[in-house]
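Data deposition worksheet. Section B asks for the primary sequence of the deposited chain exactly as it was used as input, without tags or linkers unless they were present during the calculation. Section C holds the resulting structure in token form. Section D is free text for depositor observations; keep each observation to a single sentence. Incomplete worksheets are returned to the depositor.
Section A, Depositor: J.P.
Section B:
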Amino acid sequence: MRAPMTDLPLMLDRVSLSAGATEILDRLSMTIAAGQPTLIVGPNGSGKTSLLRVCMGLVRPTSGVVSWGGRLDAPPVRRAFVFQRPVMLRRSVAANLDYALAHAGVARRQRPPRIAELLARVGLDGLDGRPARRLSGGEQQRLALARALAREPEILLLDEPTASLDPAATRAVEDIVLAAARSGIKVVMASHDLGQVRRLGGDVVFLVRGSLRERNGAIDFLDHPASEDAARFVRGDLVI
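Section C:
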């Protein structure tokens, strides 16, 4: 019997991305393997979002090679992406999930129980009939996570999903992310919140001007940064 396709490890080999004369990513080489969450951190403009888009396959690098499970140009059927400000369809909460399940190839008769399961998973039980655009910001982000989880992804890419949320909503999203990681989904998440990095754990990829400056376990990165740029970033100093 054939082994199921996998997108892991996700590998970047000397990947660069430019827009005109601006270098967004600079010869990045790294491997993202199964296991605990990988947190991408760095100052504004460091290339965090662009790196996630390259990992998803939404953007083709200017140079270098990206591979998923040893394959090039692998279709993103085993990957899901949640944007910082996700767009809600002008439909109910349940209809948003029905749309995601349909695109994931789930048969119509199988969708109602899956919708109920996903709503419970993200703490939105009982809100299935509410218009998605009338949810709070935190609820919308949880619905966006449910839509991503509807794809049963192997890799879940998150672009600062708690950037505009209050502490309670942030914690609710973090709980979903941690539960996803515990279920075996590889989480790759950009974050600007060092407290969040400590809570989620895993390993940290530290970018400055599109260049990989340090990669380390989250606690070691926060408590014993190996580079001067990382030490300044952790202290809250300006890094440019």
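Section D:
The radius of gyration is 18 Å.
Helices lie at 48-56, 93-103, 111-121, 137-149, 167-182, 194-200, 218-223, 228-235.
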